[in-house]
Amino acid sequence: MNAQNFLQFGVRRELFNFYWDGFLTYRFERNVGKIFLYERFSEMVIKTDRKFIRDDNEFRFIFFRRFSSWFNSAVVLNSISFADDKLGGLNRASSSELMTGGKFDFFKNFSITTVAGYKIDYQMGQKDDGWGYKLSVDTSNFEISNYNLITSLTYSEDFIKPRKNITTDLNLTLWRKFTSDVESKVEFFIKRLKRDFYFFADPTLRATYGVNYNIEGRDEKLFSGQINLVYPISSHFMINLNFSANSRNIFKAVRYKTMSLYDVSIDEFILKSLAGISYELSKLKFKFSFDYAERNETHSPKKHELMTEGGFLRSKQNEERKNNHALRRGLSGEISYDFSNRIRIGGIFSVSLFRYDTPSFLNDDDRDELLHLFRIFAIVKLSKEITVELPFDLNNQHLVYIFATRSANNNWSRVIRFSPSVMFEVGRIRNKANFSVLANYTIYDFEEKVYSVRSYVFRQFYFSDSVRFPIFDKLSFEGMLQVINSESGRMRWREFKERPTIFIDTKELRFKLVHAARENLRFSCGYHIFDERRFKFVDLEKVPDSRITAYGPTCEIEFEGGKFILRFDGWVENLKFGDRINFVPNLNLNLTLKLWQSR
């Protein structure tokens, strides 16, 4: 039996929506060859005044037949399809390929695989087909001065006229493991992905070139590198250094050009770095890190013979509006101290500054964001059975737009939250209660001068309690109660006065009796009640606005055999919204089969 080989199938119905999901992975190996099979599909049906269907399917089959110690023949079949009734143009697409070739194991840790075959691609109602090939070179577990090296190179081309696809991947990983927790790693990655896509031709294009579809080519080139080092200064003190750089160029080329259709080059550069230290004793734990990230993006149109100087200038301005430069710097830390085996206190903080700049004078989205996150907590074990957690959170965010055209949206967002919890557990008895109060104040800097923006406040009270206890040897009770009260309204920060506008009262109750017939077989039946009441305020008086209720019985079955797992749960809801009552059955069925593997 191999845990990697299994078949899973699921069916769900929620309200008027239906879902089907399936997944299969199977690997079979013997001395004479290998077989790998992979299948994943999903279907979703949404019924409203119309019926919408979405399908996704992916299938892969790989077969290797060994003829000698250094040569294996190979057969590869790949297929992927997509369909969605809600989309207009690209509502159906598929791609299938059948290839054959061989794998050459020239050395112990070095192999070359080459396959070639035929590919059929369907897109925008257009069917293209042609020949393709793929070449891959792989190395594994090369040792160089106590360092391990893994490399992988892949190159493929598809000649599906009038389109052509190219893929190039180079992966290189070099690492050394000093201890079970300490290692250094260097990763390098190069990728080129060239794809052609159809899109509808407008009347001008059809009249000029006599085509119904245009083709946009997307040629993406990516260079990426990362260095990660975890180094122990002592048995208690450790340093973590991480640095990565990514350079990407995307060239979008249009096959049939007009005054408004032109080629564009997009360049992106991302730089990330992190330096952290950690210190750990038997009672004291401390972590501190500094991170820096920078991203630059530029868009450049390419002029062609059909563009006038004025048209090219407009295109250049339109593309340059998308240019941006982003910078983020942050500090974060965590500390905890165990006063005893029963009491731990600590704190977590994070401070970051984000800056977003747009060089174009036509773009006024330049802004700064300052974010503070703070948490203090205490964990107290009153006894072996009772644990109390007391976390307190304080978050501050300040958003500032640089230009006056958008500065009306400048605001402070302050969130205060206290969320204690109590856990009681002994034997088969378990009870957990959560309590939370939250207040969110979003205050606009210029609300007194700009009528279109208004500060607001949001408050929430949350309580949940779950319990599980045995009644008899094989019969137990499980229940959950949840209460949420939410209120939002207008806020005047200077006077600290508010005017409530909406109040929502939500209650939910679930309970069930669980019968464990055997260790691998469980039945349960119960009841579910949901009630949501909405109120609006008229002259500070709370007036009922709407109400949604749902209630009905629930049922669950769970059975685990030697080679399969079956889970079924269903519930019936009498859904009431206003004066309308709907009888809605819901279903969730999941079957997992473990597949046998021989070696």
Write the topology of this structure.
Elements: E1 6-14, E2 17-30, E3 33-47, E4 51-66, E5 71-84, E6 92-107, E7 110-123, E8 126-144, E9 147-160, E10 163-177, E11 183-200, H1 203-209, E12 213-232, E13 237-254, E14 263-280, E15 284-302, H2 309-320, E16 324-338, E17 343-357, E18 367-381, E19 386-401, E20 411-418, E21 421-426, E22 429-444, E23 456-470, E24 475-492, E25 497-518, E26 521-538, E27 541-560, E28 564-577, E29 580-594
Walk me through what this model shows.
By secondary structure, the protein is mainly β. Helices cover 3% and strands 75% of the residues. The protein has a 29-stranded antiparallel β-sheet that branches. A hairpin with a 4-residue loop joins β4 and β5. The protein is globular, with a radius of gyration of 31 Å.
Tally of separate helices: 2
**Poorly predicted runs:** none
Instruction: Let me know the largest β-sheet.
Output: 29 strands, antiparallel
Measured distance between first and last alpha carbons: 10 Å
List how many beta strands DSSP finds.
29
Query: What's the mean pLDDT score?
Result: 89
Which of globular, elongated, flat, extended, rod-shaped describes the shape? globular
Strand content: over 45%
Helix content: under 10%
Structural class: mainly beta
Radius of gyration: 31 Å
In short:
The chain has helices spanning 203-209, 309-320; strands spanning 6-14, 17-30, 33-47, 51-66, 71-84, 92-107, 110-123, 126-144, 147-160, 163-177, 183-200, 213-232, 237-254, 263-280, 284-302, 324-338, 343-357, 367-381, 386-401, 411-418, 421-426, 429-444, 456-470, 475-492, 497-518, 521-538, 541-560, 564-577, 580-594. The protein has 599 residues and is mainly beta. Strand 26 and strand 27 (541-560) form a beta hairpin.
